[in-house]
Structure formats: structure tokens, C-alpha cells
Amino acid sequence: SDLTGWAQVSIEQVLARNPGIIILSAHAGISPEQLCETELAKTDAVKNGRVYVISDDNIISRPGPRIVLGLEELAKFIHPEVFNYEPQPLRCSVTASG
């Protein structure tokens, strides 16, 4: 990847990459529902209902033993079939035109 560390990307950069999955923290600066009202609604992740929110920001942002819980949650979002997990992804009823 051409990005390293805690890189900030623009909506245009996200659209160009067209992610298949978007995982947000609860304090990401945009709510999952707001994705439906932006150009990001054009991404495969939003179109296919593969936008997820981490249950607790601390399990991915604070070093400690709970980081394992964060990794497990990420893995469940990415490969739910392996974990026999049925995530509750965001589903937009109406997406941005285009």
C-alpha cells in the first residue's frame, strides 16, 4: 500500500480504491448512517452492506490484553463465515445518486 501509519484519506481517495469493506470506530468523525448520504454510498462496501462499527473503540485503540478482542471482532467482520457469525452491517435504504 502507498499509505502508512495513521494516514488520512479524502473521500475521493476512498472512492478510487472502492473498498469492499468499511470498518468504522464509533468516534470516526462520520456516522455509518451519514455514509449513505455521501459519495461513499457509491462504494462496494456500502452497496453490499459491508459497513461495520467496532463495538468499543478501546479494543482497537488502547494497547493491552483487550486488543485480542478487537482483532477477533475485525476478523469476524472480514470473514464471518469462518466464525459462524452474522454481523449486523449498515444497510442504506437510499444511497447517493450516481
From TrEMBL:
InterPro entries: ABC_Transporter_SBP, ABC_transptr_periplasmic_BD. Gene3D superfamilies: Nitrogenase molybdenum iron protein domain. It comes from the Archaea. Residues 1-82 form the Fe/B12 periplasmic-binding domain. This is ABC transporter substrate-binding protein. It comes from Thermococcus paralvinellae. The lineage of its organism: Archaea, Methanobacteriati, Methanobacteriota, Thermococci, Thermococcales.
